[in-house]
Amino acid sequence: MRQIYLLFIFGLITIISAGVFLSKPSVPAKLPAVVLPSATPPGEGQIKAATPEDPGPIATVVSPLKTLSRTPADTQAEAPAPQGASAADHVDATRLPAPNHFLHKQFTLTDRSDFAFSVPPHIVNPILRGNFHAFAKDSLDSTNRKPANIDLALMNEREFEDFVHRRSGDATYEVDSSSSQAVNYAIPPTHDRLESYHLVFQGSGRSSATVVDADFTVSFE
After folding, report:
1. For the chain, what are the domain ranges?
2. 92 phi and psi angles, rounded to 5 deg
3. CB 169, CB 159: distance < 8 Å
4. Do 172 and 154 form a contact (C-beta atoms < 8 A)?
5. What is the average pLDDT across 52-62?
6. Range 112-220 classified under CATH 2.120.10
7. Given 107, 119, 161, 205, which is the most exposed site by the fewest CB atoms within 10 A?
């Protein structure tokens, strides 16, 4: 009877021990750590020490004292270079030559007569003024002089060379064949060099000579 009781007690203890073992709470498995992304992009906000291989960006420091101490010569040196001036920009209208009375006489015209004059450089408004009267030479002793038509032309140096060598060409200024004419002509302005002109009188093909009274002046205005 005692042995049966001991077996019962031993069995009861075994059952209680098994129940305790089965009821022990299990330990949850360890989950891997989750790393949240940083709000700051990689490389930004990090201070990196300068090294001999990577000294970092070089800043240029402008001194306020240096800016204020700049001289007018420094400012002028930085001004853009002016554009090249043309020859017409050098015209000096404050110092003008005196008028040139290059023709004031009576002369006999058989074929051609020319009278040269020049216009100095840098003249804005040269003007040829004058008049002439032509009449037949064989009527000098008569009380009624007979008019004779002649041609008048103003030529520059190139035009005059063509005229002398019988080459066709134009004239700077021409007057229709006439026995009397007044002239008031604005010659083209000169630039950086002197310009030469010839005032040419030419007979109209008459067999007898012609006498011309001429008075011409070139002025510089």
Report:
1. 112-220
2. -110, 105
3. yes
4. yes
5. 59
6. no
7. 205
Residue 99 backbone dihedrals phi, psi, to 5 degrees: -60, 150
DSSP string, the chain: -HHHHHHHHHHHHHHHHHHHHHTSPPPPPPPPPPPPPPSSPTTTT------SS---PPPPPPPHHHHHT--HHHHHHHSPPPPPPPGGGG--TTS-PPPEEEEEEEEEESSEEEEEEEE-TT-S-EEEEEEEEEEEGGGTTSSSPPB--EEEEEEEHHHHHHHHTT-----SEEEEEESEEEEEEEPPPP-SS-EEEEEEEEE-S-SS-EEEEEEEEEEE-
Q: What is the CA radius of gyration of the chain?
A: 58
Task: Compute the half-sphere exposure of residue 50: CA atoms within 13 Å on the CB side of its CA.
Answer: 5
Which tens digit of pLDDT belongs to each residue from 151-197?
999 999 999 999 999 887 899 999 989 999 999 999 999 999 999 99
- Going by C-alpha positions, the residue among 114, 107, 106, 109 that lies closest to residue 207 is 109
Q: How far is CA 151 from the centre of its chain?
A: 45
Range from 81-90, 101-110, 145-154 carrying the lowest mean pLDDT: 81-90
Q: Which residue bears the tokens 């001429």?
A: 214
